[in-house]
Design brief:
By secondary structure, the protein is mostly beta strands. About 0% of the residues lie in helices and about 45% in strands. The chain has 1 helix and 57 strands.
Length: about 725
Amino acid sequence: MFKKTLLATCIAITAIAPAFAQTAPVVGPNINLSQAPGNQYEPAVAINPADPTEMFIAARNETGGLAIAHSRDAGISWAHKIIAISPIPAAGDLPRAYGNVSLAWDSFGNLFITYLVQGSTRSASYVGLALSTDGGQNFKSPVSTAPVLLLPATNLPLAGDQPTVAVGPGSNGAPGSVWLTYFTQGGIAVSSAAVTGTGKVGAFTSQLLPSQPVGVNFGDIAVGPAGEAIVTYGPNSGGSGGTIYTQTDPDGLGAAPFNPPVQVAATNLGGFTNIPAQPNWGIDPEAGLAIDRTTGPHRGRVYLVYTDATAPGGPDTNIFVTTSDDLGVTWHNPVRVNDDATANSQFLPRIALDQSTGAVAVTWYDARNAPLNNTAQYAGSFSTDGGASFSANFLISAGTSNQANSIAAFKKADYGDYTGNAFANGRLVPAWADNSNSTGDNPNGATNFDVFTAIVNLPAAVPPAATLSLPAAPASGWFAASPVTGSFAASTSTSTIASLQCTGATLAAPTGIATTAANAAVLVTTPGANAVSCTATDAAGATSAASLATINIDSAIPALTPTITPAQPLLGAVVTAAANPAASLSGIASASCAPPDATMLGAKSLICTATNTAGTTGTASLTYVVGLALTNLAPPPAKPVRAGNTVTVSLQLADASATPITETLARSLGSCAVTATIGGAAPQCLTYRRATNEFSGRVTVPASLATGTYPIVLSAVLKITTLGTTTELVRVLTHR
C-alpha cells in the first residue's frame, strides 16, 4: 500500500522501505492538461534545458490530433489545446496526427516532435518529424519550409510505427545531434542528423539496424556524452515471452556502424500481453533508455527500464532497471523498482535522468491497491546511487483509473502504449492518462482519459556527514615523528558511501564502502607542512569535505658541522666553538657546544648539540689539536752553502701569546721533538739549549743537491702530534 502524508496542497508519499531510505520527494497537485472530450493518452514530456521552468507535453487525441500543454512557470500553470487535426495544416501547425508522439528539447532551444502522420482515420501512418524554436507555438520541418519531414526520407513515404526522438551532444565535428528510432519495413530503423544551432539541422541519414532479429518493435533511443547513440527494442508479437535487445553506434554521427545486437534480458512478456488492468490493448516490456551525461561518478552509465512477469504471460508484473557502463556491451544484474509485496501488475514504465545531478526517476502504472488487479494508480521512484537501489515508491496520481470506464471512439486502447516523464534540476514532470476525474474538470467525468501531470520535486541530495580526526599539534606546532595517525569517517542516511579520499594524507584500511557508514585510518607522512582535507562521496555523487589545520612534520635529526676558532689553536689561546646546524623544516630552536680547552697541548674533543622546533636533537663531535708556534728562527747564511756542508739552525717554541715555552715544557717534549731537513733529506734532530731556551743544531746539506735555493723544513712533534711547521730558504752551491 502507498502511504500518504499531506503537505499543504502537496502530497509526500512513503511506502514499504527499500534496502535503505532515500530522500522523500514532494508531489504537487494533480493537473488535468487536456480537459478535452474523448480519450487522450500516450503522453510525451520535454523540459527546456536552457530554462527548466519551461515545459511541453503532447499526447495522442484518440479521434485525431495531438493534445498539447505548455508551461513557463515550472508547471504551476499550463496553456493547452489540440493541434495537428487537419491533413492540410495552417502555418505553424502540424499535419493530422494519429498519435505515438515523442518529444526532445536540445540545448540550442530546438523542440523536436515526432509522431505518426495520418491523412485520415483509415489511411496509413507515417513517421513525421517537426521542429519548434519558440517553445511549441509553431512547428515546421527541421530541414525545409514544409510542415513536417517524413522519415525515412525516401522518394515514396514508408509506413512506420512507434517513433521516438532523442537529442544530445554531437560527434564528427557537430556540436549537437538529433536521433529517431521507429518501426518500418518490418524492422527497427534509425535516422539521425547533425545540429549546429537554433533551427540549424543537417540532412538526415536513415538505416535499418544491421543484424537485428526479426519480430521486434517498440524501441527507444538515447544519446551519450560523446554523441554515441544506443537503441533498444523488444518483442513485436506474442503474449508470453520475448527478448530485449540493445544496439550501439559507438561514434554517433561518425562513419562507424551500429554494433550487433546485445541480448539484455529475456522476459515473460511478449509484444501484446493482456493483463486485468490493460485487457484490450495489452502491454509489452516497454523498454526505455537514459544515459548519464553529467560530470558525476556515473557519467556514461546507460540505464534501461523494462517490465517483466513472474510467469509467462502472467499478471504479476514488475518494473526493473539494469545498467551498463560500457555502452551496452555488458549489463549488470537488474534491480527491481516497485517495492510492493503483492502479485498485482505494474506496467508501462518510463525512465528519465536529471542531467544536473545524475538522479534517475522511474514512473509507471501500479495496480497494487486494486483487489481485482484491474485498476491503476500512477507511481514513481528515484535512484540517487546510480541505479544500485531505488527509493520507497511514492504515489503520484491523486485518483484511481479504470480502463473499463472509458468509451473508445474506435478500438479500445485502455491506457495506450506508454506514459511520459522528464527530469531536470531536481524536478520530475510525469504525464499519464487518467480517468479518475480527481481534479473535477474532465468534460466526460470519470469515463474517458485525460492527460494528467503533477510536479514532483526531489529535495537536494543530503551530503554525507564526514568527520576527520587527527591528534592535536604539540605546543611547538610541529610533530617530531611520522606518520601522524588519525581517522576519517563518513555516514549517510540517504545513500551509501561510494568513496573516501584525502589530500595531504594517505588512507589506509578503509571499511564500510558501499554501506551507509565507512571509515579509514589517515596517515600523514610527508615531511613539512601538510594541508589535510578528506572528502566522502556517496553513490549519488553528493560529497562532504572535512579539513583540519595544517599538520607539520619534522622527524629529521638536525645535522651539525661543528667548528672552532681558531681552527688550529695554540697553547693558551682563547678558543670558541660553533655547532653550525643545517637548516631544519621546523627551524632550529637551540644549538650549543661544550667549551673548547686550550690549556694543555695535544688532541682534544668536544660535543655540540642542536634541537629543532619539533623537539628532535642532533649531536656531533669535533676533534682538535692544541699546538705550539715555531718562532724566532735564526736566519740562514746570506752566502751560498756548498752541498755536503752544514748550516746552523735555531728556533724557539711559543704559546698563543708568543711567549717562549718554559724549560720544563720544552724538555717534556722529549728528544728530537724539533727537527730540520733540507732538500727532502731525512729529518735531523735539533737540541734544546737551556741557556738560550731554544732548539738548535747543524743541519747537513745533502751532497746530491744541485745548485739552487731550497727550503729548510722545521717541525716540532709531540709524540705523534704535529705542533707546527715553519720553513726558511737556504741557497746551495754544488761542489766544484
